[in-house]
């Protein structure tokens, strides 16, 4: 009895085999990157202010731009991941202030080591993040409504508790308390690279971008984030833990808010209870400029970093160009619209080349 060998499977060009094995051109890969539009925009902003502002290219200016970008970028990274997962967090801005207030007031009122207040603040901040995630999954309400409610509650709590405990709208100074110097080194110190003096927030920012990029591209949880943001029902049908994924994303936002809050506290010693209102929109803008879609399922952590960098260059470039800073919000809005249009064009080009 003779047997016939199966015909060879051709996986070359034009094959009907697994498309993941097909060669992809560098151009197609480039057009498929979510952050492409933001990178083009960042280059344009950099060139523009290099021409119109003489001081923009100085090393001291670089330090200032990176610091401004890092304070936004630390929060923009987890906000971008949350948006990729299809959700929003409108309480992120005031949560930063809540984190700082809890650290300061607990340490001062309990006359405890500053690090005790820092740890308590971490627990409180993560509890708020867990509250947002759990309430979202239990009520099935839109995240816009859930976090808007949290935003309003935190705004009132920040002001009410601060006035109740201190009798003022700001906290007492904790600069002379035990542990302050060591905590400041971690959250608000400076370091020098060559001729450039940088804030430690730049390191926190880069570290968060690296970790978030690794999560999105190299872990199962990253696949879950994209799946939940693309279609939560379909993701649930194939076994993706949608509830855990969403809660994890809100915990990520809370953790970044804790870092930002500690930087705020240890940079200025005292905290104003009304700070942070409106910053949540800046974090979302940075993520959108970086290529994240409002509808979810698309974006990157690197894109959010580029979006934050554009924000830093614009906010400081206007100062170096000696323009009226009242126009800043106009330029920010214009950048948002241009970035959204550019990102939409890039996506269409990427889909057309598939």
Mean pLDDT: 87
Distance N terminus to C terminus? Answer: 47 Å
What class would the helix/strand composition place it in? Answer: mainly alpha
Could you tell me the number of beta strands?
Answer: 2
What is the radius of gyration?
A: 23 Å
The order of strands across the largest sheet is 1-2
The unreliable regions are 1-22
- The H/E string reads HHHHHHHEEHHHHHHH
Shape: globular
**Beta-strand share of residues:** under 5%
- Bin the helical content: 55-70%
Main sheet specs: 2 strands, antiparallel
Question: How many helical stretches?
Answer: 14
Q: Can you describe this structure?
A:
It is a single chain. The N and C termini lie far apart (47 Å). A hairpin with a 2-residue loop joins β1 (190-193) and β2 (196-199). The chain is globular. It is built from 14 helices and two strands. The chain is mainly α. The chain is 69% helix and 2% strand. The chain has helices at 26-31, 36-52, 59-84, 92-109, 114-139, 143-166, 180-187, 200-218, 220-230, 232-237, 242-268, 279-289, 301-320, 328-352, and strands at residues 190-193, 196-199.
């Amino acid at each position: 009895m003779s047997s016939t060998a199966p015909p060879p499977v051709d996986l070359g060009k034009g094959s009907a085999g697994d498309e993941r094995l097909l060669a992809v051109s560098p151009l197609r890969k480039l057009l498929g990157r979510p952050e492409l539009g933001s990178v083009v925009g960042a280059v344009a902003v950099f060139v523009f202010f290099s021409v119109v502002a003489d001081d923009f290219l100085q090393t001291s200016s670089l330090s200032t731009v990176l610091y401004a970008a890092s304070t936004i970028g630390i929060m923009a990274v987890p906000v971008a991941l949350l948006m990729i997962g299809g959700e929003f967090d409108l309480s992120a801005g005031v949560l930063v202030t809540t984190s700082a207030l809890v650290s300061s007031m607990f340490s001062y009122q309990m006359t405890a080591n500053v690090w005790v207040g820092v740890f308590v603040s971490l627990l409180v901040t993560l509890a708020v993040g867990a509250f947002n995630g759990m309430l979202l999954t239990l009520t099935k309400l839109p995240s816009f409504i859930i976090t808007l409610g949290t935003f309003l509650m935190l705004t009132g709590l920040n002001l009410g508790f601060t006035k109740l405990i201190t009798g003022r709208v700001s906290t007492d100074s904790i600069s002379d308390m035990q542990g302050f110097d060591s905590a400041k080194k971690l959250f608000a110190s400076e370091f020098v690279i060559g001729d450039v003096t940088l804030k430690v927030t730049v390191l926190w920012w880069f570290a968060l971008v690296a970790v978030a990029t690794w999560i999105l591209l190299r872990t199962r949880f990253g696949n879950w984030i994209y799946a939940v943001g693309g279609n939560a029902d379909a993701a649930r049908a194939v076994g993706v833990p949608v509830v855990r994924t969403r809660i994890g994303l809100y915990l990520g936002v809370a953790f970044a808010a804790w870092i930002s809050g500690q930087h705020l506290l240890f940079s200025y010693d005292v905290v104003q209870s009304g700070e942070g209102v409106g910053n949540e929109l800046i974090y979302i803008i940075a993520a959108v400029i970086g290529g994240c879609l409002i509808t979810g399922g698309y974006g990157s952590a690197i894109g959010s970093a580029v979006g934050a960098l554009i924000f830093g260059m614009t906010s400081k470039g206007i100062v170096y160009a000696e323009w009226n800073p009242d126009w800043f919000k106009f330029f920010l809005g214009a950048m948002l619209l241009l970035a959204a249009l550019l990102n939409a064009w890039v996506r269409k080009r990427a889909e057309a080349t598939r």
